[in-house]
Amino acid sequence: MRKEYVGAGDGAEAIAWADATLRAEEEEKQRRNREELERVRDLAAPVLKTDDAANVLVRAALVDAGFHRHNGQWRMRRDS
Questions:
Q1: Residues near 75 by Cβ (< 8 Å), separated by ≥ 6?
Q2: pTM, entire model
Q3: Helix H segments across 1-80?
């Protein structure tokens, strides 16, 4: 943050008012952004839980079918 002395009088008051207005607008914008982010997180939470459950089911089905993970890749187990 940088402060700059602009003197006194009507010009200084106008600059101070403009600065305060810009600061208030920025704070309001940040508040709206935080609210929107919270709303999106609330909407996404059930989807993420469903995704986790689906991943568990797919992994179980693949293991049951004889697959295993090798370096992140699903491969069919060889008979030894």
A1: 67, 68, 69
A2: 0.53
A3: 10-64
Q: Quick one: tokens of 65?
A: 């079918």
73-78 contacts at long range (C-beta below 8 A, 24 or more positions apart): none
CA quadruple 9, 14, 19, 25: dihedral, nearest 10: 150
CB of 6 within 8 A of CB of 12?
A: yes
Sequence letter at residue 36:
E
* Tens digit of each residue's pLDDT (9 = 90 or more) over 41-78: 999 999 999 999 999 999 999 999 999 999 989 999 88
Structure-token pair, residue 76? 């069919």
**Residue ranges of the domains in the chain?**
10-76
Q: Distance between CA atoms of 65 and 46, rounded to whole angstroms?
A: 29
